[in-house]
Amino acid sequence: MELFDVYPLYNITPASARGVIIKDESGQEYLDLYGGHAVISIGHGHPHYIKRIKNQIDKIGFYSNAVHNPLQHELTEKLGRISGCDDYHLFLCNSGAEANENALKLASFHTGKSRVIAFKNSFHGRTSAAVASTDNPAINAPINRQQQVTFLTFEDIDALRKEVAKGDVCAVILETIQGVGGLDEPSSSFCAEIAELCKKHQVVLIADEVQSGFGRSGKFFAFQHHNITPDIISIAKGMGNGFPVGGILIHPKIEAKYGLLGTTFGGNHLACAATLAVLEVLEEENLMANATEIGAYFKECAKQVPQVKRIKGKGLMLGLEFGFEVADLRKNLILNQHIFTGSAKDKKVLRVLPALNIEKVHIDTFFTSLKQELE
Predict the structure, then answer these.
(1) In angstroms, what is the C-alpha Rg of the chain?
(2) I need a labelling partner for 122 at 20 to 30 A (CA). Which of 27, 89, 185, 212 fits?
(3) Phi, psi (rounded to 5 degrees) for 281
(4) pLDDT digits (tens, 9 = 90+) for 155-183
C-alpha cells in the first residue's frame, strides 16, 4: 500500500522539536515561523503541555460522550473566563472543518433556512457545507455544490443588505482575519453592519476563529477587535497545540436538544488535557500580550524591507505582500536559511504564524535571512 498522493512535500523529515526550533533527522535545525498552519500556539514540546498529557494518559485517554467527563467542565469554565465568552455554551469536536460544519448545521436547525453568505477568499474547511462556503472551486466536488452559498466582497454593504433581506439566509460566516486567503480583513464598520443585519433578519452570525483564535491576533478572538457578538464561534488549530481538537461556542439564545449534534472523539480526555494546558500557558505566560508586542516589532522590522509592498494581519497572524509570487522565496527560506513560513491563496503573500511565545531574536533572524534571499 502507498499513501494517497495529495500533498506536495519538501524533502525534510522533522525528528524532534522544542519551542520554535525543529530538528530534522540529520540534525539540521529550522526556525518554525509557521507552526504547521498556526497549530503550534505555545511552542513545540512545552513542558507543561507534555506533563498535562502524560499525566492524563496514565489515568484514562478516551471514553465516549455517553459518560461524565469532568475535564470537559473544567475546560468550559477556563475557556469562558479567559476568552471573555463566559455566557456561551461549548460543543467539542476534532477539527476546524468539523467545527464549521457543526456551526453551519446548527444555524440551519435554528433558523429553518439553508442559504449561507460567505466572503471571497474565504477558507472554512474541506467537509460538505464548510467547503461549499470556501471560495475555492478547485476543492469543491459536485456533491458539495448542492449547498446554497452566496459569496460577497468585504465592504459591499449594499450587496449584503440585498442578500440578507431575501429571507432565506441561515448564516453569515466570517473570518475577521482571513487565513488561507491571505490576511485580508473587513473594517470594523462593515463587521458592525453584518452583526446588525443578522440580528434584524434572524440570521446566525458565525465567527470563524479556527486560525485566528486562542490569542493569535493579540486578543483571544479576532472578532473582539471589532466589538461584535457572534452567535457561534468556531475554534480549532492552536487550541490543542498539535493535538486534534475543535469546537464551537454557542450563544445561549440557541437551544440545545439531545441528539442535535454529536461526535465520537470530540472532547475526549486527552483532547481536554491538551486544551487545558494551552489555556494555562496562555494565561500564565501572558502570551496574548506577547503576540501583540512581537507582532508590532515584526511590523517595524518589515518596514525596513523595501521589497515588502504591504504588511498584513494582527498580532502573530501576519503576512508580507510582495510584488511577485513568493513560492520560490518560501522554498529558499526553507532550503537555504532553514526557516519555515507559509503561503496563501494570494500567491504574492508570505504568511508568518509562529508560536505565541516567540522572541524578538527569532524575528531578527528571520529578517536577516529574508534580506539575504531578496538581494
Answers:
(1) 20
(2) 89
(3) -70, -40
(4) 999 999 999 999 999 999 999 999 999 99
CA torsion, ordered 310, 315, 317, 318, to nearest 10 deg: 20
Q: Which residues of 226-258 are buried (b: 16+ CB within 10 A; e: fewer)?
A: bebebbbbbbbbbbbbbbbbbbbbbbeebeeee
Q: Please say if the pLDDT value at position 314 is more than 90.
A: yes
Q: How far is residue 171 from each of residues 112, 120, 180, measured CA to CA in Å?
A: 11, 15, 21
Q: Tell me the one-letter amino acid at 18.
A: R
DSSP state letter for 255: P
- The answer to whether residues 177 and 123 touch, using CB atoms and an 8 Å cutoff, is no
Full set of structural domains in the chain with CATH: 14-44+286-374 (3.90.1150.10), 48-284 (3.40.640.10)
Cα separation, 329 vs 350, whole angstroms: 9
Q: Which residue has the cell 512535500?
A: 9
Cα–Cα distance for residue pair 295/212, rounded to 1 Å = 14
